[in-house]
Structure formats: C-alpha cells, structure tokens
Specification:
Elements: H1 3-22, H2 24-39, H3 60-72, E1 77-83, H4 90-106, E2 110-114, E3 120-125, E4 128-133, H5 142-154, E5 169-176, H6 184-190, H7 207-224, E6 230-234, H8 236-270, H9 273-297, H10 308-332, H11 337-364, H12 372-402, H13 410-433, H14 435-453, H15 471-483, E7 487-494, H16 504-517, E8 521-522, E9 525-526, E10 529-531, H17 533-543, H18 558-569, E11 586-593, H19 601-615, E12 621-625, H20 627-661, H21 664-670, H22 672-688, H23 699-725, H24 728-755, H25 763-794
Helix pairs in contact: 1-11, 2-9, 2-12, 4-7, 7-8, 8-9, 8-10, 8-24, 9-10, 9-12, 10-11, 10-12, 10-24, 11-12, 11-20, 11-23, 13-24, 13-25, 14-22, 14-25, 16-19, 17-18, 20-21, 20-23, 22-23, 22-25, 23-24, 23-25, 24-25
Length: 806
C-alpha cells in the first residue's frame, strides 16, 4: 500500500469521524436497533449435542444413517449394567424385574427394553416353535431357577449383551424411538386423509427428547442403586446428555469469568468508568447479534460452538481498546474530545479494520469445513468479529461524542505511563541493537517446535472429554470392561431382490462373518458381540430339531430357510423386524464394541468391508453406518478440512499483511513473528503428548487470526514512524510507546479470556484454552522482540548511532 493511498484512506477516516460526531445520536439509535433485531433470534436458538450434529444435512454418512434408522430404528442404546455377586439370586431377580418394569413404564420415547426378564428364549416343544421371554414363567423353586441359569449361560446370544461371562453383571438395554413425538398425533390421523400429497416426514428424536430419556433413566435407577445391586448407566444418549449438561455449565462459567476478566483488565488500563463501559457496549451487542442470527437461520448451538461467547467477548474488545487508548492519549496531550475522536480514527482506523479482517479471515477459513459445527463456528464467529468492527468504528466514536470525556489529572497517570514507557524503550533498544541474539534464540525455539510437530497425533473420543470421575464416563468404562461395550458399528447388506435373504449362500455368509469378526480386536478393544438375522435362523433351526445343539446351524435349503423364517415371524416375536426389512431383501449386521477413538474407526471399517466382500455372494451390496461410522467420518472430515483451513488462513492473512505494508519483502518477513508462535505451540503439544482433537486442531487458524492483529498495529505504526524519522530504533521506540500498551493489554485480555477454559468441566477445552493462550503470549513476545529485530536487520542502513548504544 503506497504512502499516498494510505494518506487518502486516513483522510477518509478523518471525514468519517466528523460525520459520526455530527450524527452521533442517529448512529447510536440505528446501530443498537439493528443489533436488537438480530439479537431477537436468541429466543429461537436450540442446542444439539447429538453425533448427527457433527455432519452436514447432505453428508452421505448422515443420509445413509437416516435410511438405516428409518428401516431399523436408532442404534443409540441406553445401557444399564447391574453388578452383583450372583445375578441369578432370587432376591436380585425380583429387584431386577421391578427395575425393568419401572423403566418400561416411565421412560419416555421408549421403543424397546431388553433384559434377563424378557430376553428371547426360542425353543421347540413337540412340533411347535415357542418364542417366549426367558422369565415368562417365574422360577419359584431352586430347581427351576437352576434351569433358567443354565439356559441363560448356555445361550451365546446372551453373552456380553444381557449377561457377562461369570454371571456377575447383567445389563438392561433401552432403545429409544427413532422419531420425535412432535407431530405424532398428526401422523396418526394422516392415513385417514384423502390427499395425493405424501405425508410430511416426521422429525427424528430431538436433542431435548434425548435429554428427557437420560434424565428419566438416571432418576429411576438412582432409586434402586444399592450394595449388592450396583448400577452403572451409560450408552450414547447418556454420554451425549452429560456432554450437554457440561456445555451448559461451561457457558455460564465462561461468560461470567470472561466479563470479569475483561472488566478488571480495562479498569487497570484506563482507570476510568468509560474505559470499562464503552468496550462492553461494543462487544456485548456483537455477541448477542451473532447468537441471534444463528437462531434466525435455524443453526443449532453445538458442542464446538460453546467457545463462541467467551471468544467473541475477548476478541471483540481488542479493537475498542486500541481506539480508546489512542483517544485517551490524545486527550492527555491537550486535544478536545472531538479532536481526539477524529485524530484516533485517522491514526488507527485502517489498522483496526485490517486487524478485524485478518481475524475474520482466520475464522472464515473454517467455513468450508465438512464438519458442520466447525463450519458454523467459522461463519458466526467471523460475523461476530465484523459486527464488533462496525461497532468499534461507528458506534464507539458516536458514544464517545455523547459522553463528556476529558483528560485525567496528569500526576495520576504520569508515573504509571512513564514506567511502562521506560520498559518499552528498553525492549525496543535491546531488540534493535541485538537482533542476531534474538533471532538466534527464536531459531532454536522454532527447531524445537518443528521437532515437536512430528510427535503430534490425532484423537477424537467425545466420551474422554468428560472427567474420569464423571458418572457417565465411569459407567461407560465399566461396561466397556465388563460387558465389552455398548456402542456398535452397523452394516446393512442389500441383496437387491425380494426374499434375497432366503439364499443359503447369503445366510451362510452372515454366519461366517460372525465367526470371523467376533474374535477381532481393534486398537486394543475387543469385539463384544456380533448380531444378525443368522442368529435367529440358527436358534429357530435348533428349536425345530428337538432343541438339539447340533442343529444350531444354517439350513442348506432355500425353502427350509423361508419356512423357518415364516414360523419365527408368526411366533409372536417382533425381533425379526430389528434385523430384516419387510421384503426380506435387506439385513442388519451389528458389531457391538467398546467405545473407540474415532480416528481408528476408518481402519476398522476397511477391515470389516474386506471381510464382507470375501464372505458374501456377488451382487450383494454392503454399507457401513451407525453412530461409530459417523464419528469416524466427522473425525476424518475435521482433519482434512483443518489442513485446508490452515493453508487458506495463512495465505489470505499473508496477502493482507503485504497489502497493508505495501512491500512484498517486508510483508513476508512480518509474518515470521506470526507463524513462529503457531509452530512453537503445536510443537509443545507434541512434546507433552497432548492429542490434536476437534478443538485443539482449531488453535492454528484461530491463533493466526488473533496474533497477527498486534503485528499489524506494530507494522502500521512502525512504517509511519520509520517514514517520518528514517531511524529504525526511533521508529520502534515510538511504535512501542504509542501502541505497545494497547498491544500488551489486548494480548493479556485474550490470554486470560482463553485461560478461562481452564475452568471447563470438559478436558479437551482445558487444553484448547491453555495452548491458545500460550500461542497469544508467545506472539506478543515475538512482536515485542522478534519483529523489531527483523526490522533492524532489514533496515540496517537506517539505524542511526546513539551515544547510549551498548
């Protein structure tokens, strides 16, 4: 950017200042009215912590899962594990039945409940096929109880689904409705309406309804939990609800702490009420407008977006701090209120705009993410930054023009300002006169960072975000260890024709897959159980052959398979619909496992797909779906999209820096103090073994958009003072003593704003806050030391000797 163009832009800001002073009341009323209109959308804002929320509505994985749950129902289960010395003790079974009935009768949105009480027991009696509940006839004698126990322990389908290997843990499985109860009445009447239009598709179970399920289950089991009947409640709905409650706790905690930190920092810096109140008038409407816009557009508040409020509070105040610092400084130097406002806009208007644009660019780089919450975070955080910019450039000067701002008594501020200026001058002199020492230390730190980068690893395991002592996580760990998990990878096979499942080769393939997959373990976690229609067929075949275990096999005749499936279907059991469609063309194959880190799920899927390709006949298609698959897809999307985001943010911000400075070489060199803290921060994460997850991976793009702000303020003022004085050291001195205090304050506010996440009840947010704060702190040091050193090396010929040189 040429000096002439820069001058024209600065004069434009001067004219804007005069207009804002003249029409101050109108500006305030119009802007606050617009903010209020946007903020009205807050009443429409909804929360969503479901796994589905991580994917865009048109994502193939989500579309496949929607098709799956339309046919087979949800695969998200509530697992209630009960531990006892002997789960076949008569008193234990009576209490288990009471709990089963209580859950069945009082948990809302319940589709199916399964436990030892009603576990499927298929047997033959003469020529009759009987499918009944395991405890349909209550065992009143020790002999009857022993028979039930033997039958349960001998049934391979009960193992790790209803009971563990040694009979000390049993599990109640609750499956919720696939669809929301909203509109259910209308749907019930829809069949009686003569209309050529198809009925509207019912919405799926909502996040709020999922919370109702979790709350009801937890309240009920709490009444039964006792010594000898120890209950552990987990499963995806419970974990998701725990994350939601943690997020709600975080929201209030983060917002209050951010407000307190910002207020304290502003009070310490400005020592006047207007210095505290005015930034909040700028930033709070920006935050409310951003959240309100989400409500207007129907975008839900998801787990990653919980960082948005405290983030915008910390970031949005930065521009206001710079404007107020220059204005108050001008007042202290004798300018009137209006003169100070006009001078500030002319002096810093361009830099404030450029800093906001670079921050928005860093955030907007997430907008193309294939992970829906990250894309939304990028869009609405960048929108909030731009609203804060508009309020800083337009609303703040108008408000200052209304208030009776005056200079403070000089003795009250002189000593504090002089002490700070002396420190900044010492930093400036050391950085300019000893550049190679600083650059040598910086190079060593960069090497340290690059080596650490090689030790980074990825992770995406939402249940580990909860503290180890959280009841939902502890229960999940218990079920993973004692029942080999309660999550699942779902596979849908499609024969492509009606009654295609009757083919012996298809059924035999499903049986072979069970034998091949059930012994597997992946990433240190064993497969807990494999379930399919082949299990129903085998137990039916056994029952029809006098309960002979030798006939627990797949019949080799197509007609016999069809006949046995028909008999089971007409036995009164509804279990068949859980595994096949009404045309007997599609089947569900469930692989039950402990929770896996989503990063390793794609490898597991590849193994499973290879086994299906080898086991099933030609022409049978296979699709992997379910919660576990979607988690794996969202993790993969996050990694790939973030790599693109880093590249976009780096290139765009570098181009903006070059444009602002107007010199390609200086602009590129000026980016070194910005990229170095990112490399060092990620390197430290690698050295200390902190995984890169869905939150930590945002650090780079967020931090580069933030840390470049101080560099822009530094370079903007340095170029002006270097042009005026022709002396590097004098230019750096003037830069740090004029804008250095504001740079220090905004960086401190940002650091403290991100350190607020250290009070999170979610582990991953703690790491995100700590390392983002570390990046901002190191960036401030880079701007105070590395940037002047680089300018000294670039402009060595413009360094005028001084008697005080050392």
């Amino acid at each position: 950017m040429s000096t002439t163009l820069r001058h024209r832009i600065e004069q434009t800001f001067v004219r804007l200042g005069h207009l804002l002073i003249r029409f101050r009341w109108g500006v305030v009323i119009v802007l606050l009215g617009l903010m209020g209109g946007l903020a009205s959308g807050l009443t429409k804002l909804e929360m969503d912590t479901s796994t589905e929320s991580f994917l865009h509505e048109n994502d193939p994985s989500l579309l496949a899962y929607n098709t799956f749950r339309d046919q087979f129902g949800r695969d998200e289960l509530v697992a209630v594990a009960i531990e006892a010395p002997d789960v076949f003790d008569p008193d234990f079974l009576r209490k288990l039945k009471e709990l089963h009935v209580d859950l069945r009768d009082h948990v809302p949105h319940l589709d199916k409940i399964t436990s030892l009480i009603n576990a499927r027991n298929t047997r033959g009696q003469g020529d009759e096929l009987i499918v009944e509940d395991l405890l349909q006839t209550w065992p009143e004698t020790p002999q009857a109880l022993a028979e039930v126990k033997a039958r349960a322990l001998a049934n391979p389908l009960y193992r790790n689904t209803t009971i563990n290997d040694d009979g000390t843990v049993t599990m109640i499985i609750l499956r919720t409705d696939a669809y929301s109860s909203i509109g259910a009445t209308d749907d019930a009447l829809a069949g009686f309406v003569d209309s050529p239009e198809p009925a509207a598709k019912r919405p799926y179970l909502t996040d709020a309804e999922n919370s109702e399920v979790a709350k009801a289950v937890l309240e009920i089991v709490a009444k039964y939990d006792s010594p000898g009947f120890s209950i552990h409640t987990a499963g995806t709905p419970v974990v998701v609800d725990a994350l939601k409650r943690a997020m709600q706790t975080n929201m209030g905690r983060f917002t209050l702490l951010s407000l307190a930190i910002i207020a304290a920092s502003l009070l310490l810096m400005f020592r006047r009420p207007s210095g505290v109140i005015l930034p909040f008038v700028v930033v709070l409407p920006s935050l409310l407008a951003s959240l309100g816009l989400m409500g207007h557009l129907g975008v839900k508040f998801t787990i990653p977006i919980q960082i948005l409020p405290s983030f915008l509070l910390a970031v949005g105040v930065g521009g206001a701090v710079h404007v107020l610092a220059i204005t108050f400084d001008a007042l202290q130097r004798g300018k009137s209120r209006d003169e100070a406002i006009v001078y500030t806009l002319g002096h810093s208007g361009l830099a404030v705009i450029m800093t906001s644009l670079t921050t928005a660019a860093g955030l907007l780089s997430f907008a193309g993410s294939e992970t829906a919450p990250i894309a939304a975070l990028g869009l609405f955080s960048s929108f909030g930054v731009m609203i804060a910019l508009a309020n800083t450039i337009l609303l703040l000067p108008a408000l200052m023009a209304i208030l009776p701002l005056k200079a403070k008594a000089k003795p009250k501020v002189a000593a504090r300002v002089e002490a700070m200026d002396r420190l900044l001058i010492q930093i400036a002199d050391f950085s300019v006169l000893k550049p190679w020492r600083i650059l040598g230390i910086s190079a060593a730190l960069l090497i340290f960072g690059f080596v650490g980068l090689g030790q980074l690893y990825f992770s995406h395991a939402p249940f580990t975000w909860l503290p180890a002592d959280n009841p939902a996580r502890a229960a999940n760990d218990f079920i993973d260890a004692r029942m080999k998990g309660a999550s699942a990878l779902e596979v849908v096979i499609d024969t492509g024709r009606e009654n295609g499942l009757y083919e012996p080769a298809v059924m035999a393939g499903l049986e072979r897959l069970a034998r091949d997959i059930e012994p597997l373990s992946h990433a240190g976690q064993p497969v807990g159980k494999v379930l399919s229609v082949a299990d129903i067929l085998k137990e039916t075949n056994k029952a029809l052959h006098s309960n002979d275990p030798a006939f627990y096999t797949i019949p080799e005749d197509r007609a016999l398979i069809a006949q046995e499936m028909f008999l089971f279907e007409n036995s009164g059991s509804q279990d068949l619909k859980d595994f096949v469609d009404s045309q007997f063309s599609k089947a569900r194959f469930t692989i039950k496992m402990p929770w896996l880190d989503a990063i390793v799920v794609p490898d597991l899927i590849a193994i499973v797909q290879a086994k299906f390709a080898a086991a099933l006949p030609q022409g049978v298609s296979v699709e992997v779906t379910g919660m576990m698959e979607m988690l794996g897809k969202s993790a993969y999307n996050t990694i790939m999209s973030s790599a693109t985001s880093y590249l976009i943010a780096g290139v765009v911000i570098t181009l903006m820096m070059v444009l602002l400075i107007g010199d390609l070489r200086v602009g590129l060199v000026a980016m070194i103090p910005n990229f170095s803290p990112i490399v060092l921060t990620l390197g430290v994460m690698g050295w200390v073994g902190v995984p890169v997850d869905m939150f930590n991976i945002l650090i780079g793009s967020i931090a580069i958009g933030l840390v470049v702000d101080d560099t822009i303020h530094f370079m903007h003022n340095y170029r002006r003072y270097h042009h005026d004085t022709g002396d590097v050291r004098q230019a750096v001195r003037l830069t740090l003593t004029s804008t250095g205090r504001a740079m220090f304050t905004t960086s401190v506010v940002l650091c403290l704003g991100f350190l607020v996440y250290g009070f999170s009840v979610l582990n991953n947010l703690i790491a995100f806050g700590l390392f983002t704060a570390f990046a901002i702190l190191t960036a401030l040091l880079a701007d105070f030391f590395m940037a002047p050193a680089l300018m000294s090396v670039l402009h060595k010929a413009h360094l005028i000797p001084d008697d005080s040189d050392y």
